[in-house]
Amino acid sequence: MMQFNIEQWRAWAPNLESTQQWHAWSKAPVRVPDEQQQPDVSFIAPMQRRRLSRLARMVFNVAWPLAESLPALPFVFVSRHGETPRTLALLHDLAQNEPLSPTQFSLSVHNAIIGQWSILRGDTSEMTALAAGGDGLEHAIQEACLLLNEGAPAVLVVIAEESPAAIYAAYIDDVPFPYAVGLLLTPGDDWQLQLRPGSGPITQWPHPLNLIRTLCTGQTLTHYWSRRQWTWSRKPN
């Protein structure tokens, strides 16, 4: 069983940024249209943000305010699909026998975003990029708890998914709209996360969005994936 505190959280999706907007969405969740809205990263200098993809901007949008008052902290980033738009562009170039851009390739790999984060913040703390299945959030929490147990005073966890290109529509069905969820974890026992063998229904919404609903409404949270049952519980106030 893992124990931790969620000191702060932030989330971003198209037209869903403020805590009030997420509270309203949590009470009546709907699929929000993706109008290619760009997250606000105006806190980064224009020359530095030129290379940030929308996925990277989503991550920075939720993570930067959580880390702003902390000089350095470990970072766990998780995404099931990663930079699919960049990867698709590279595959298109290959199909056309065009030379590949070294910059685009280097920014398409799964740990590129935490590399950009480390450079822009000047933070050399331990950072991990995970590619996981439908319970990637829980694996990220597990990684973060290991870092807390090793003495880290806080750990930043971000899970983000970009809208897949139309060509992937038949294969990626777990991203109803682009989103990023950021959590600042600290040592404590306010939250408990327990893993048991088990099977159950797959929920309508990706699990990170269900966690937001739990944070906003106080609903209980049990998540099933690949014969694993994850149970989230919060200590009563």
Q: What is the H level of CATH, i.e. the homologous superfamily?
A: Thiolase/Chalcone synthase
Question: The biggest beta sheet, please?
Answer: 7 strands, mixed
Structural class of the helix and strand makeup?
alpha/beta
Low-confidence runs: none
- The oligomerization state is single chain
User: What CATH architecture would you give?
Assistant: 3-Layer(aba) Sandwich
CA radius of gyration is 18 Å
What is the first-to-last residue Cα distance?
20 Å
Give the CA-based shape.
globular
Q: What's the helix-strand series?
A: EHHHEHHHEHEEHEE
CATH top level assignment? Alpha Beta
Helix coverage percent of residues?
25-40%
CATH topology: Peroxisomal Thiolase, Chain A, domain 1
Strand percentage, roughly? 15-25%
Q: Total number of β-strand segments?
A: 7
When the domains are counted, the total is 1
Structure write-up:
The protein has 237 residues and is α/β, with parallel strands linked by helices. The chain has helices at 19-27, 46-49, 54-67, 84-95, 102-108, 112-121, 136-149, 207-217, and strands at 2-12, 75-78, 127-130, 155-161, 179-197, 221-225, 228-234. It is built from eight helices and seven strands. 32% of the residues are buried. Strands 1, 2, 3, 4, 5, 6 and 7 form a seven-stranded mixed beta sheet that branches. Helix 1 packs across helix 8 and helix 4 runs antiparallel to helix 5.
